[in-house]
């Protein structure tokens, strides 16, 4: 569906701006103090006169709150408590289990509903874990909650965006996401509305222009008045079509949904056929219900979904202890599957801090000192990025010389400019090759720029244009005269080398995508230990098709525009990679939205945090390996333990088909499945799911699980057919056949568990040994509860014979199926300590 074009709200009546805003002062959050007067009822028809310098008074704020004109939103990333309860209780499998339990009760078979308490306990565990995870996510979200700078009572306050009210005066700076539909009152900004319109081109906003919630400021600074709040915002109306937060494309989520659909259809069709067959072969109604229930309950892998949600929730809680905000249950799976990690240089490889290394004056201005020019530009362009902070520390920030018009710095242009009427001069600062693109002057300074870049320094040019900037400029014009070069040094993160080395050993390819000079980025990447860092390219001037064509040919990409970052990510995904992107600035947002897993630094821009799947709250790049390890632990363990669940599903399905074809009673009752559920699935799965596991994930989740589970299911069927073949020859009754099948099926389950536990460590040895002991205990002391009949010597010898060939046969089936699996997934996993 095409995205709608935002409709601008009706223009309010603007009052003359204050002659001076000098009484605006920064202040901490000040709570609204109740006044002696009751706030008057407020409506949109009320007189709404608000000055920039004063903003709203406490009484005006109270009246708007009382009338409901507050920026509350119904949109949230995490589930509500109600959603958690409903999604855990009213699942298809829970409803099927409940229906079967009622069916068994109706025929008086209370012993066979022992599965129901287990289902109830599992559901409660799932709800508790998800509620704990939600509480953790919500508490961490408060630390990363978007805030707004507002003018109230003549002071500048920082408040959460959900406390904004209609007519608030907000101050917007570079990197800020616009919280409400607003009208620019003073200043000028460039905004990116791609989250709303899909178009990434910067949009220039001057006084009386409309700012839409969800877009973000990429350059400049302005005062704006809030015109819409909460659900009235254009973005809230657009939520059903285009969400600002995009859930990760989870392989497990897709697989489980497919499994639910397939198993539901199979259970209904096979269950109905099984019941009709049991009635046809002459069983009384009660027995037909009991046998059918045994087959149907065996086919439902309900515990698998509990295990998945509990494991992911546990992962979220564990990562929260290490200052990592996970904004969706399934995003840690995507990071665990990553095989290409794309880094922005600033804030990831480097720590985001910069320092002016050198200042080279190329030509003196007629009247002004070049250092003074830099200071004036810092006071006019209102940038708050790391480069500007370094410049301000070195050259100061002169606000006395007011620019008549400005061209804010943007990551697309790579420079910013300002015109000063009192000096009749336009000054510009930014990337040399971009400023001098239209002139021949760059050749004169190219050697100096390259020399600094080879040392890993960022190079800025200060220059003068002989043309005035128009009031609403879109680009620089006129003849450009270089005035000075500034070299800036990035600080490499202390932990960057170790972190990058971890990814290298884990089989993850690292790429660096930056807006800086590619030579500079290459040197920084090499210092950080990135492989093939000498393979670099500049994307300046390349078409979209050319960028896509070379996406997989280089390690370092320089002079990359925000849209080119997105194209690179998209192309890497099209080549079959699972791509993660880290970033901290507004120029990273398009790429972060495109990536399979997006990771933001908390000290980066607000807009970046809002759209990312993961937020590193301590802005610590070294936290990433921990997140990857946790994701791999969760997904690998779910995949491994799912083998135990689906082995039961497969043999129950095959056994049901077989007894229908052979007109036999189903040999396992639901109470006897408790043996398998507890010893093979229940206890082992919850232990194994929490173990460390750092194997790189390969292949499709469902394919991998089925390939591991099918051999055990086939072995159960082979054993059952062998028992049916031998039974009449040694005089086995149907009851003895059923008991033998139950015992041998559990033994096959122990064999599958044995393979899942390999390689053994102390914990797994104790686990497996304990299950064998419990199995023996159950055979001796719980035979009555499980309705197991005493077996004679011939029956016991039969079991012994079958056990002797079962494990070699299981290995044969696995090895044969592995050839088929390896044909589709030839790449071997990489394991790191």
Short recap of the structure:
This protein is an alpha/beta fold. It contains 27 helices and 22 strands. It folds into three domains: 25-69 and 145-238, Calcium-transporting ATPase, cytoplasmic transduction domain A (Distorted Sandwich); 249-317 and 633-824, Calcium-transporting ATPase, transmembrane domain, CATH 1.20.1110.10; 339-577, Calcium-transporting ATPase, cytoplasmic domain N (3-Layer(aba) Sandwich), CATH 3.40.1110.10.
How would you describe this protein?
With 833 residues, the protein is an alpha/beta fold. The protein folds into 3 domains: 139 residues, Calcium-transporting ATPase, cytoplasmic transduction domain A (Distorted Sandwich); 261 residues, Up-down Bundle (Calcium-transporting ATPase, transmembrane domain); 239 residues, Calcium-transporting ATPase, cytoplasmic domain N (3-Layer(aba) Sandwich), CATH 3.40.1110.10. It has 27 helices and 22 strands. The strands form 3 sheets. Strands 1, 2, 3, 4, 5, 6, 7 and 8 form an 8-stranded mixed β-sheet that branches. It has an 8-stranded mixed β-sheet with strand order 9-22-21-20-10-17-19-18, sandwiched between helices. α21 links the parallel β21 and β22. The protein is elongated, with a radius of gyration of 33 Å.
Layout of strands and helices, then pairs:
Layout: E1 25-26, H1 58-66, H2 81-89, H3 92-106, H4 115-143, E2 147-152, E3 155-160, E4 169-173, E5 182-192, H5 194-197, E6 203-205, E7 210-211, E8 216-226, H6 234-238, H7 251-280, H8 285-299, H9 302-320, E9 324-326, H10 331-336, E10 340-343, H11 345-349, E11 350-361, H12 370-381, H13 386-395, E12 405-407, E13 415-420, E14 425-430, H14 432-435, H15 442-454, E15 458-465, E16 480-492, H16 496-505, E17 509-513, H17 518-527, E18 536-538, H18 544-549, E19 556-558, H19 562-574, E20 579-583, H20 589-594, E21 597-601, H21 606-611, E22 614-616, H22 623-662, H23 670-688, H24 701-730, H25 734-757, H26 762-781, H27 793-824
Parallel strand pairs: 1-3, 10-17, 10-20, 17-19, 18-19, 20-21, 21-22
Antiparallel strand pairs: 2-3, 2-4, 4-8, 5-6, 5-7, 5-8, 9-22, 11-16, 12-13, 13-14, 14-15, 15-16
Helix pairs in contact: 2-4, 3-8, 4-9, 7-8, 7-22, 8-22, 8-23, 9-22, 12-13, 15-17, 22-23, 22-24, 22-25, 23-25, 23-26, 24-25, 24-27, 25-26, 25-27
